[in-house]
Amino acid sequence: MQEKQHAQIEFNIGMFHFNSKLRTLKHGTESSTLSPKENELLLMLCEYKNDLLPRETALKRIWGSDTYFNGRSMDVYIAKLRKYLRDDSSVEIVNIHGNGFRLVIPD
Predict the structure, then answer these.
(1) Does residue 22 register a pLDDT over 50?
(2) pTM above 0.85?
(3) Cα 71 to chain center, whole Å?
(4) ∠ CA(32), CA(94), CA(41), 5° rounding?
(5) Are residues 47 and 100 in contact, defined by beta-carbon separation less than 8 angstroms?
(6) Which of 88, 89, 70 is nearest to 78 (CA)?
């Protein structure tokens, strides 16, 4: 089964530039290489920018199922992404209790 290609591969997230094809997150001269799961999760958050990314949708697409343990794993990845993005206080990943997450980026 061929994986669906995403229409957009590059995103500006506040002061960061994210390239999902190269799995890089750049800020000025700093560049981080994301793990495959970090990359896929950030890509999904970008696709749902300023909107709710349902927890179940992300778990099923990235982890294959929405079990409790996969959910705990996703929470760890969300924490890692928050660390990468912490240098820009205008960008945040908001937890919508019981529903999912929202990547808030001012326009």
Answers:
(1) yes
(2) yes
(3) 14
(4) 45
(5) no
(6) 70
